[in-house]
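Tokenise the fold.
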Amino acid sequence: MTKREIYDLCEISCPGYGIEPILMMAIVEQESAYLRNAIRMEPAFWRKYTKPQSLDDCSEILLAVSFGLTQLMGQSLKELNYFEFFLKYYNDRHNFTLRDPFSEVTIIKALNAYLVRPSWHIERGCQWYKVKEKIARGSVEKTLLYWNGGGNKNYPAEVLARADKLSEEFK
């Protein structure tokens, strides 16, 4: 997938959320370097947040992995009701019915479906940005800091520098 194709997805999804496409593009560049199949396990996140949920082992581990262009955590997707969305999406298209949005089978199928649909990465990224923006009371810098989980205090400046550079490229 080219940078231009990713930017086109940002131009489709972002305006509906009041997000500048260049800002989402900068997040994509920062998080995944434009690799739609990027995945990263976050062991500390797993220990602190998903292991205590007492789901199936595979499910609690997958919720502690970040996925795709925007590197949303499985837990973030859970909080955005993505797995319930996927359950309906899947059941509307297949004879086999999935019943539990958090079973190992559903989570695996849902994350596979997510990884091969970059438009879903951008759409869910926009939704997650708005969640963080509400907490940040509209501050872009704080929104970006919350997006990153606060671990890298330079994250907002890094993303905004990328946005400045990208705005020249996508004029």
